[in-house]
């Protein structure tokens, strides 16, 4: 089974047996302020809002070289790439912060971040997402206190437009978010992927994910029973 198939099926299981609702518990307010508030559900647990990282003026001006799958070099803002845990791990492991501070250039010419299978076109869309979510804390995953099932995120108008693409593009975003490890994009892609699959038959899901039909009739029946769900007809609003 392909990696995208595994990711989407995992996403489906996270939102299994849960209908879309307007419940705004745990919703992250999309505000571009120095301090971003996060609504939390009052379940008796002490939960601290995720912290928003503060950047210096120099960090806001930095550029980092990223190589796409086609070999294209894209100079991306460092403060946006900081949303990628994969990028930050590599940056810190190589000691690039000290090396960069000692350099007179605003571009880390001695550092090149490989984007593996992410195309230049897809990476530009990922940069759009990171630009829109700069200074927005990562979303908090919430569960319904009664059913213990995942509460759906409520998309902003901008986010709904971002995901107003065909399924193939959504899969590209999902794979990119998984590789870069961008929590906000990953979880929103997971929800959108689950929404696209919900209500589909096993055959339809197989075709969407380009999977070979190697299941027996009994396995198909078990799969249909396990993921017998009712999903929304469109992105959350």
UniProtKB/TrEMBL annotation:
Keyword field contains Electron transport: no
Keyword hit for Endoplasmic reticulum: no
Residues of the SKP1 component dimerisation domain: 184-225
Signal peptide: 1-16
Pfam families: Skp1
Record's keyword terms, sorted: Signal, Ubl conjugation pathway
GO annotation, biological process: ubiquitin-dependent protein catabolic process
Residues covered by region (Disordered): 25-51
Biased composition regions of type Acidic residues, renumbered to the chain: 33-45
Domain of life: Eukaryota
UniProt similarity note: Belongs to the SKP1 family.
Protein name: SKP1 component dimerisation domain-containing protein
Organism listed in the record: Globodera rostochiensis
Taxonomic lineage: Eukaryota, Metazoa, Ecdysozoa, Nematoda, Chromadorea
């Amino acid at each position: 089974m392909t990696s995208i198939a595994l990711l989407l099926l995992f996403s489906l299981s996270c939102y299994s047996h849960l209908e879309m609702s307007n419940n705004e518990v745990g919703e992250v307010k999309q505000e571009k302020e120095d301090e971003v508030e996060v609504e939390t559900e009052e379940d008796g647990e002490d939960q601290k809002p995720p912290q928003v990282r503060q950047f210096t003026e120099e960090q806001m001006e930095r550029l980092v070289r990223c190589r796409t799958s086609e070999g294209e070099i894209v100079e991306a803002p460092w403060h946006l790439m900081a949303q990628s845990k994969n990028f930050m791990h590599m940056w810190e492991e190589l000691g690039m912060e000290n090396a960069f501070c000692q350099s007179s250039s605003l571009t880390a010419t001695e550092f090149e971040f490989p984007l593996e299978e992410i195309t230049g076109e897809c990476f530009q869309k990922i940069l759009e997402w990171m630009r829109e979510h700069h200074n927005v804390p990562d979303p908090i995953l919430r569960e319904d206190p009664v059913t213990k099932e995942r509460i759906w995120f409520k998309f902003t108008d901008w986010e709904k437009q971002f995901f107003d693409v065909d399924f193939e593009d959504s899969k590209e975003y999902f794979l990119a978010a998984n590789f870069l490890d961008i929590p906000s994009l990953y979880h929103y892609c997971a929800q959108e992927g689950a929404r696209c699959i919900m209500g589909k038959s096993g055959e339809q899901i197989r075709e969407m994910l380009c999977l070979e039909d190697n299941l027996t009739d009994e396995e198909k029946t078990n799969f249909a029973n396990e993921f017998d769900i009712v999903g929304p007809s469109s992105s959350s609003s």
